[in-house]
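batch job 7 of whatever, protein = Helix-turn-helix domain-containing protein
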Amino acid sequence: MEKNIVIFKNLHETYQTMDLPVSGIETNAEFTINNLKALHPQLPFKSIGFRPDYFSFLFVKNAKGQYTTDDVTFATEPGTIYFTNPGHFKSFEWYEIDEVYLITFSESFLRENVHPDIFREFPFLLAETVYPKVLKQADFAEFETLYRQIEKEYHAGSPYKNRIIGNFFVVLLLKIKEYFWNDYNPIYEGNRSSQIVKTFKRNLENHFRELVTGKVHQPLRVQDYADKQSLHVNYLSNVITSKTGKSVSTWIAEKTIAEARTLLQNASMSIKEVSNLLGFSEATHFSNYFKKHTAMSPADYRKQLLKS
């Protein structure tokens, strides 16, 4: 596998870099849904290798191709459903496309519109490898009803669009859990490195849950996450970076911002209270940190929420 694989922050950036049509994809959307037939006018198509910094579901009603995640390649055929989370190496090929729906979404979208404790409710979203399923036509039709309703709401223009989609998404995740997670076996999570990544993600999630509920008050450092697995800090850093394309520090920063966005939706909580919950000693430090990573202050972010 080649080194220094590019990381794409959203679907628009992914497809634009590959010289594919992007007119129907919002530039910085936290959620997208598209029929790939419109985005792949010329077939066959082979993508470059990349690491998406977003979650994705693919629903293949009628198409043929193949898909690679990390070092495993799967055939893509009618009735296929698969899921990937951020950080994994990906590439794909399409030979024929009639109807394939791709849904992409960020952690922030999940927390703000689906459930604030999303990974506790749906732990498979953190799994290292979720193998695709090829469903019978009747079973696939259940998912088709859901993703088409989501598509309808996505284009409806309602001021409550994200909340409505979020409610449909709960049902979609429950159906994914029903069909995929019941057969899940942790032995397929892979080698030692994959286990380290999985454990790190769970430790990260659990720690921030304790932070925002006030059970702990001091944010963990990179060294602390290494200590939790009895690893040398350099070894943990190398494994996380090589397996996910992002450093431990980047994972921590992105998690901090995702939690901050969720907390800032609570208008009764002051920015200072949000700052304290996330372990910042000063509200000004938190505001500078938030602006560094989002290009807007916490106060401006709240104003944007009110407008939307």
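notes: The longest helix spans residues 192-212.
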